[in-house]
Design brief:
Oligomer: single chain
Number of helices: 2
Largest sheet: none
Strand content: under 5%
Radius of gyration: 34 Å
Shape: flat
Order of helices and strands: HH
Distance between the termini: 89 Å
């Protein structure tokens, strides 16, 4: 009984998977974008070029905002590390002061 059910399922799967072969269209070649803003060489001069046209372009607001967020995050991390180091130094001084006092 199980073998017949399995065979029926396998046969149905093979029947559904078999698709007729059709002719394919010619694939398009790679799209070549024309250089923007007069880029005449592989490494353009920094003075030639144009400003950002979309938010994701170099110098666009998205990149500048991301840069600001990264700078703020690094500043917060530095302040937290500084606070922890000072707190550890303060606790170490208190422990040393307690050990040097005679009981």
């Amino acid at each position: 009984m199980r073998a017949r059910v399995f065979g029926a399922i396998a046969l149905a799967a093979l029947w559904m998977a078999a698709t007729p072969v059709t002719a394919q269209e010619e694939p398009e070649g790679p799209q070549i974008r024309a250089p923007r803003c007069g880029a005449g060489s592989i490494i353009p001069d920094p003075r030639e070029g144009c400003g950002p046209e979309t938010p994701g372009d170099p110098g666009g607001w998205q990149q500048l905002t991301l840069f600001a967020v990264i700078l703020v995050a690094l500043a917060v991390i530095a302040l937290l590390v500084r606070r922890q180091v000072r707190q550890a130094a303060r606790l170490a001084q208190l422990d040393l002061a307690d050990e040097t006092e005679p009981s």
